[in-house]
Amino acid sequence: MSMQTATATAAPGWAPVSAMRLFLRRLGVVLAAGGLVALAGFWLTPYAPGGADFLNRLSPPGRAHWFGTDQLGRDIATRILYGGLWSLGLAFIVVTVGAVFGTLVGLVASRGGRVLDYALMRTTDSFFAFPELIAAVTVAGLFGPGTFNLMLALILVSWMKFARLVRSLSLSLAQRDFITQAQLNGLPEWRILWHHYLPNIAPGVLVLWTNSWSRTILAISGLSFLGFGVQPPNAEWGAMLLDGKAHMQTAPHIMIFPGLAVLSAVLAINLVGDRLRDLLAEQHQP
User: What percent of the chain is modeled with pLDDT above 90?
Assistant: First the structure.
């Protein structure tokens, strides 16, 4: 049987990829527009994120400071803008590294034989035994506070979901005709994984990735609020909430606006993930 026949038979399995590509093009436009707005904000703001102004400390929202100032007189709007680089950027890195590692573990477990599959999945189950945030707090507490330790703690508790998902999808794909035909054609294992497995598991991984991104933003903000994450004077949304806790009654705007930033980011990413899931579901409908 020719390679062309195997590829033609594989076409139904590639159907979700077209929806994913359409979604990614739309998402790219939205992200590019958001990036331009953020860059314009960095350029237009007259304040530095760490610039203290003790004469204007705890100022309420107004014309000069749209979101007010904190206990050191720093402009909250500027710090929220720069804090997005920490909250969104760190979450992006953590989830991406966790997704790559988890995908590799899932593929190896599904294609490496029964013994290796058993060993890897029991290891994965051991990580699932602890709630994700509690495990992250424990790991961060052992390693100490800091940005790198925060990322390491979250990566260690984020890859299991991807490993489980990829293993399940891979075992299902192994029963498909186009996989069998590719094996009968003598294709090497790496080509089967690259050309048949990865394109078909990528949509499911991407949906999980978007949902995990929003959860990781909450985890980073929560750990920073507890003092385990990004340390002062860096502007991170959770750290800003921690700074404003002592002034919650006298100057509530110090906590309100960083909290709204976390809420808006999580809601927007969840909506993106829901839209991607709907696109993939429509693609599978007859």
Answer: 9
